[in-house]
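Pinned message: reference record for Type III restriction enzyme, res subunit
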Amino acid sequence: MNVFPKNTTFKYNWRTYQKRILDNIDNYLHDNHLHISAPPGSGKTVLGLEIMLRLGKPTLIVAPTLAIKNQWIQRFCELFLNMETAPGWISSDIKNPGIITVTTYQGIHSASGADEEVEDQIKKSSKVSVAEIIKKLAKQKVGTLILDEAHHLKNAWWRSLMELKDTINPTVVALTATPPFDVSGSDWQKYIQLNGPIDVEISVPELMIEGDLCPHQDLVYFTSPSKEEEKKIEYHHRQATIFFEEIKSDNRLLEAIEQHPVYLNPAFHLEWIYENISSYTSGLVYLHFRGKEILDIHFNIIGDQQKFVPEFDFFWMEELLDFYLIMDEINFKKYEEHRTDLVNRLRRAGFLEQRTVSFYNNKNLNHILNSSIGKLQGIKEIVDFEFSILKDDLRMVILTDFIKKEYLIDKDHNVLSLDKIGAVPIFEKLRRENGQNKKIGILTGSLVIIPVSAKNIFEQFCIKKSLFEVSFSSLYYDENYLVISLTEKIKHDVVHIITEIFQSGEIHILIGTKSLLGEGWDAPKMNSLVLASFISSFVLSNQMRGRVIRTDKDNINKTGNIWHLICFDCHDHNGGQDFINMRKRFKTFVGISYKSAPTIENNFERLNVKSLESKEELLEVNQKFFAWAKDRTSLIERWAVALGKGNILVEEIEVPSMNMTGMEKLKMDYLAKMSGNFAKIIGSTILLFWQDLLLGLLRNIDEINYIKSFSILVSLLGIAGLIVYGGKLYRSTKQYLRYKDIGRQLSSLAEVVLYGLIHEKVIRTPIDKLKIVSTSDKNKNAFCYLSGGSQYENTHFIQTLQELVSQIDNPRYLLKQKRSLFFLKKICIIQYLIFSQEIREVQSSLKSYGIK
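Predicted structure (tokens):
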């Protein structure tokens, strides 16, 4: 029986993919779960509400924030009930559930009193236990549980929800834009246990074709550190160089490494070596650098037939110091004083923290780059540029991590030095240098500032919301701005009001925090976004970026620019950790490429940024991206061209030919076997025709009967040889052809990976729906991807295959079956590092040292 009013219907038409999901809802709900993954702007909220109506049972909706919680109620009233005020049967109080109850993840968990920092609407004096809440939900006969932004995986929240789910056994509808693919395996299993396997995945290209997302582009802006920051960075690198030069000539360290048991008697420590191959190798690299001879036994143990020793650099110094100072205290006990001195100096310099030695991926250095004040100037230049192009049509949001209220003062002039990144410092930077008269505002959970020109429209929205106790005051040092006094009564409505003011154009640039505006917040007219956040997680990065790619029903030609800030470290050949983190972010961003033939990809390489070495090159790159940002018409055209090539995204692995040397050796083995078998067939053929040859030559000899008998025996041997070696030739030829092409080689490995993941139940899609696609290019590099699986399955397939074909840095052993004369089998252990090397090479080396 449906508990909702009969006239409760969605007042618009369904999008194509929404209708497809709704038409197949019974098939998806076979396990009492429906799990949907779709990008921001795809209409997951209205889809969840419609599914709720079709299920027809009292419903509990759980959202991650108060803003999103209120959004569910607003959308239902506006789009299904056609009213502004929620009816009494919709409750936002988990302790008093209604036919529809909307709450937050924190609300359910904090009801038990386990969380001291509870949401504002939950009073500590009125807490009830989770068991009591479940009892009330059961009494209300709640049969549907909707989990919005279902990727929220905090353990405490998960336990509370699992307890609720197991008790009332509802139909679970899970909605997310970003499944947490980057969490641990155990956390992923918890995610699936709560939400069920992903049933439906909607891709960005599919939404673009449907016209449900606007054309958008990722743009980067490179900044340089401030003078003060540059001094700190130079000092950091100078100290690192001093340490490096010292280690290069440290005789005490050389003695300690040279006298370590694994270098004196490596054959007795093979298990330790293979468990700590990086540490072992770092010692060899250092010994070689110091002019010490590396004996053949070490190369045989590592499996290096070429006897190549890498150059001693910062990477190997980190490995070496980790080995000497942290990993092995027992064998370096004799050098305790020397080690203690090194440890203390490394800690003082900031190169050793939490038992980790790091010279470049260093916490202090990363903080300087991530929060560089140079980014403030970069934000200002981006804002000025975008406003010069769009003028009053600009709707820009700047998202940052912190508010930094301490930069607001109660004096006539604010001349505080802006030496940190935050909402207020960004506001101050733009306010102080606002030659274009831009309308700037701040929207955070505890601070709201609007231009004085927006006062009237703000008051109008307050009246519309029946808010009559709102007060505001002028910004102490600038009467052109108003500070809204936030009370508990109006706090939750202010977000909606400021959003509407921004949408109307009375605010051009809205500065906010990622915690409030980074997830679930909706402002379709936004056309430019600056990400001034340092978060690089898969989930939050995509959530923040998703705010600007939504379509605007009032502007069919809307486009979106997404700006990413990078503080570049010219002293680091990789550009610094800020640049490295940005590359990681882009693995989660699907967008248009800047190649001559545009494609849809999800990596940093699609931006076509070449190697950077100087500040002049940074300026050139910035100007190139300003040109792309300006030409929004071309952006629409490039999306059209790229979408014309297809709308299905696949995650692909590219394997350089050098990583397939083991397979190349295998191919040559099969070629040798094929050649050998062919020679044996020739011999068998000669034996087969022995009879005619012999009888022709010896037909006048009296002992013809004896010769005839012997030739028959030889012919039988020839027939047997043809059968045996003919089969071997067929098999070896087949295997040679299979491994002749590097793409086929990779396909063979991929097949093993696929069946292994199916056996381990990591991949659950039926095998008949899966297909391995593998190719190679003219440079003998191989490419491979899995077609037909879910995004999670495809990702794990690629990751596992990547591990299999990557260069091995910690060898293990394989059992390799070999055939010898008379088809007898023998098993020998070989090193995984070199795949096909015979163990007897190592054994012979050991014997030369008198070791059996």
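Pinned by admin. Summary line: The first strand starts at residue 33 and ends at 37.
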